[in-house]
């Protein structure tokens, strides 16, 4: 699949990649080429992504954002999300898993508890892959204190993306004794961690987004990342930032998947498509209808890329000012992130669907696999309803109503 010299579909020579970024994008392209070789077969088999996680580990991507002093590559968040976006052009599910891994590590580092450095140092040395316990089906996960320290974790989640193949789970729950919110790192290689094996969806089929049961799963005292307010008290700023990182990450994933659809469709048009009989041209890529269609898709995705970059920079600023940022500033960043996500959903779905108007009937063959980009996008964009994002931005713009931090904003 054709790749551009920089991270966008159309490069800007006035803004070359940051030092080192080009190397990581090239690595993501190389891994993407390998992932595409058998992606159709892996999807149809609904296979475990464990071999692909091993590929990411062997390539050094799992330690990309861990500080170099702790054994990692020491790369900034911007490099991480651009690498994820680039990988999403080839394999949306594996890119989602890698992006989530980076997000959980970022949130753990932002919490900054006494145990964080040791846990991330171990992550770097052992090549651990992180996921989370997901969204609880009823209420919150409950953490029962143990006499010797640490906790026993109890609860169920409907979706726990990556948990079935993770080494550590980022778990947020409530201490049953104090009613305080506690964040822990849970070792998955123990009794009581029970993935449901029930993920079989339209898209993102290798994201291992199974349900999860935690039945008295043990957490040692040294694996407690932080203790916060009681569930009846307002959360501190730092504990509300993770959701913005995730919402911004979704935009990058949407963008990468849509770019993948356009790039793959363009290759198909250049190499295999036939011009329509009434176009009166020799090659499909000379057909004005096809040219216009790609022009619309590329222009739309370039706009998404610009807004995504701005939203991502705002989130990074907020993480860097977590101690001094005001609720009003958080609201401004949250709505910028929401705008980027809205446009990435609308433009991404349109581009990933419209490529079939530009490639023709033969491009719909199962073996071609061009549909996976739309299916992955359609699945990921349902994580929270677009209607509520639109309403949130409209309420804020018209009446200044700041969004109350939640799992989705």
Automatic annotation (TrEMBL):
<dbReference type="InterPro" id="IPR036250">
    <property type="entry name" value="AcylCo_DH-like_C"/>
</dbReference>
<dbReference type="GO" id="GO:0050660">
    <property type="term" value="F:flavin adenine dinucleotide binding"/>
</dbReference>
<keyword id="KW-0560">Oxidoreductase</keyword>
<dbReference type="GO" id="GO:0006552">
    <property type="term" value="P:L-leucine catabolic process"/>
</dbReference>
<feature type="domain" description="Acyl-CoA dehydrogenase C-terminal">
    <location>
        <begin position="252"/>
        <end position="383"/>
    </location>
</feature>
<protein>
    <submittedName>
        <fullName>Acyl-CoA dehydrogenase probable dibenzothiophene desulfurization enzyme</fullName>
    </submittedName>
</protein>
<dbReference type="Pfam" id="PF08028">
    <property type="entry name" value="Acyl-CoA_dh_2"/>
</dbReference>
<feature type="domain" description="Acyl-CoA dehydrogenase/oxidase N-terminal">
    <location>
        <begin position="39"/>
        <end position="102"/>
    </location>
</feature>
<dbReference type="Pfam" id="PF02771">
    <property type="entry name" value="Acyl-CoA_dh_N"/>
</dbReference>
<dbReference type="InterPro" id="IPR009100">
    <property type="entry name" value="AcylCoA_DH/oxidase_NM_dom_sf"/>
</dbReference>
<dbReference type="InterPro" id="IPR013107">
    <property type="entry name" value="Acyl-CoA_DH_C"/>
</dbReference>
<dbReference type="InterPro" id="IPR046373">
    <property type="entry name" value="Acyl-CoA_Oxase/DH_mid-dom_sf"/>
</dbReference>
<dbReference type="GO" id="GO:0008470">
    <property type="term" value="F:3-methylbutanoyl-CoA dehydrogenase activity"/>
</dbReference>
<dbReference type="InterPro" id="IPR013786">
    <property type="entry name" value="AcylCoA_DH/ox_N"/>
</dbReference>
<dbReference type="InterPro" id="IPR037069">
    <property type="entry name" value="AcylCoA_DH/ox_N_sf"/>
</dbReference>
